[in-house]
Amino acid sequence: MKKSLGAKTLLFPTPVLMVGTYDQAGKPNLMNAAWGGICCSDPPCVTVSLRKARYSYDSIVARKAFTVGIACEGKMKEADYVGIVSGRDVDKFAVAGLTPIKSELVDAPYAHEFPMVLECRLLHTLELGIHTQFIGEIIDVKVDQSALGEDGLPDILKIKPLVYDTAHKGYHAVGPLLGKAFSVGKEWL
After folding, report:
1. Of 16, 153, 158, 184, which sits 20 to 30 A from 88 (CA to CA)?
2. SS3 helix, strand, coil % of the chain, rounded to 5?
3. CATH number belonging to the domain at 14-188, selected among 3.40.1000.10, 3.65.10.20, 3.30.750.24, 2.30.110.10
4. In a 3-state reduction of DSSP, which class is residue 125?
5. For residue 157, what are the contacts with CB-CB under 8 A and spacing of at least 6?
């Protein structure tokens, strides 16, 4: 029998997303967000949900753009750090030793050190209570060549993305391939 835990933000896994923005002065900022993911296929869109108090919030609204980097195992401390401090108080890129790269397509930066980034144009906002959901149209996806598979697509085992455990506030890794989607369930067709 299942035990009721009540209404909580428990979902496994959640991504560890590095949201890049420029503030009003043009200073690059990066934050760690777990409330997000792909939300539409056509046009390709991603969503991130932020509280209005977050420093990145006003930047997304003003610039109508953001980037979403994929946090990886090799940069776990850096990814965690940018979620602990505010860009109002520190230059997160400088302190964490990350390199800001100006997107050529949207008005937002990304960190060179994370292996994959989505460059997004703000498409919609939705007020959800204490969070605002930003829906960004994915204008481009950039991936380090070393993180690509033989088919030219991102290889999850080379990217080594972090996933967040909402229940215990921990970072985890992804494991090996267990089966091919849209294939392993065909025995019941």
Report:
1. 16
2. 20, 40, 40
3. 2.30.110.10
4. strand
5. 174, 176, 177
Q: What sign has the CA pseudo-torsion 101, 23, 137, 181?
A: positive
pLDDT tens-digit map of 64-89: 999 999 999 999 999 999 999 999 99
What integer is the mean pLDDT of 155-183?
Answer: 96
Residue type at position 82 = V
Determine how many CB atoms are found less than 10 A away from the CB of residue 59.
25
pLDDT class of 146 with cuts at 50, 70, 90: very high
pTM score: 0.96
Instruction: Please report, to the nearest 10 degrees, the dihedral formed by the alpha carbons of residues 124, 128, 103, 74 taken in order.
Output: -150
Distance CA 104, CA 119 (A): 9
Tell me how long the chain is: 189
Q: Is 160 helix (H, G, I), strand (E, B) or coil?
A: coil
Joined together, the tokens standing for residue 89 give 């108080």
Q: Which of 69, 80, 62, 6 is nearest to 36 (CA)?
A: 69
Q: Which residues of 29-48 are buried (b: 16+ CB within 10 A; e: fewer)?
A: bbbbbbbbeeeeeeebbbbb
- Are 49 and 131 in contact by the 8 Å Cβ rule? The answer is yes
For the chain, the domains span 14-188
Q: Spell out the alpha helix ranges (H) of 64-185.
A: 76-84, 92-96, 156-159
